[in-house]
Specification:
By secondary structure, the protein is of the alpha/beta class. It is built from 17 helices and 18 strands. It has a six-stranded parallel beta sheet, with helices on both faces. The protein has a four-stranded antiparallel beta sheet with strand order 5-4-8-10, with helices on one face. The longest helix is centred in the last third of the chain and has 31 residues.
Length: 512
Amino acid sequence: MNKNYYITTPIYYPSAKPHMGHAYSSIVADFFARLKRIQGFNVFFLTGTDEHGQKIQRAAKKKNMDPLTFCDEISKTFKNLSKTLNLSNTDFIRTTESRHVKSVQNLWNVLEKKGEIYLSKYSGWYSVSDEAFYSENEIKNENNNKTSIVSGSPVEWVEEESYFFKLSKWEKPLLEFYENNPNFILPQARKNEVINFVKGGLKDLSVSRKSFSWGIKVPSNNDHVIYVWLDALTNYISALNYPNQEDSLYKKFWPATLHLIGKDILRFHAIYWPAFLLAANIPLPKRIYGHGWILSGDEKMSKSKGNILDPLEIIDKYGLDQLRYYLIKEVSFGNDGSISKDKLESCINSDLANNYGNLCQRVFSFNEKNLSLSIPTKSKFEKEDLEILNNFKLNYKYLIQNIDSQNINFYVDFIVNHLFAANKYFNDQEPWKKKSDQKRMSTIVYVSLELIRKLSIMLYPIIPVSASKVLRVFNISEDKIDFNSIIDNEFLKSENKINKIGILFKKIDNND
């Protein structure tokens, strides 16, 4: 079994400061990375910034800055966001780095040598905001303003000399690949969208621009810069030191296990990227997952609407683990999800404070008063003990299967249901009424502590700071968290001391 796992976020376009959509992609990717690590996988987790193109050049000009200085500033905010979100990324790549430029130019040379690129003239609609080309049937006209139907971004007519990639040649091979690899694109709705688009016919793709200069030069013609998406997509292999395919990173981690992206950039990842790779005879990634948008209320976030949610403000007010938990639990993965103050506060109070926090507080407090902060010596497990403990072992295979098919909701539902079940178990067993039967009281507390340990391990990829704090009660450090141990009902050793813990989650007063 291959124990290497390579996960990527989209690399973010730093023409403006980060918003909740960037935070969501990164947090979900971090969830998978942390979970696979504690499962025993060697994980490479990549994120970064996409720093070339006309949009960046115009944004820099507006601020009277040269593009690289502009990118240095904005990229730093994304790098800082990675730290603020407590991401466990292995690498942060910038497309202005020399290692990346070298990889992109090499890929171009390979495609050109194989006859996959030719020089011609481009005439058509282009969105600078999306850095995307659109056909006539993808454009709408409102009040003499032409915009993309897909994104709503303004488009402009472009006519210039351009290099083209023979995308049309790869129409049938792509359709065959999708058919032979039914889980290459998920969720199913995104896969259907891609297949329908490809079946509608692929035209050759303009892959260079001559009308601006901010980008990676075409190696054989310095008058042209390489199309920003051919540049950006290559980050997934440039971070692994491509073109050196004998490099240990490349050999270990390519093809990528999972490209995690927003649904708005699906076409680039599920059509253009596989076509470039097929043409260059490079293995394709194993999966592309297009998740939904994070809405502000019921609307897509946009600068023009003034409804951009700043993750830093929410973290500052409510806490990082609180935001991470909300986004992973409350957004049905693959669909659009919304965030609002009321929903966030309700989620923090009901799930984190009342359910998880309350369970920990009650069990640890009872232990401190009656068992001197030590793991009690248990007697034989009763039927009701085994029923709840064995659920982890019985569902282990399904938990892994669902995670590996990116069904986060199954995983989170299991945790929430078992937090309720653990609280109910402690209530129903009433250890405070069994002080005359020390053996039974000790066993109830032992089972409750085991449940907290198992659930904290499962919660660690979602709320790493809080779950680590609970696991340290049992002297389990972050580097010793083992997901596979959730099937062990007797992990905790009798007489070992446990540590005290304060309040995990402060309840939010809705009158504040």
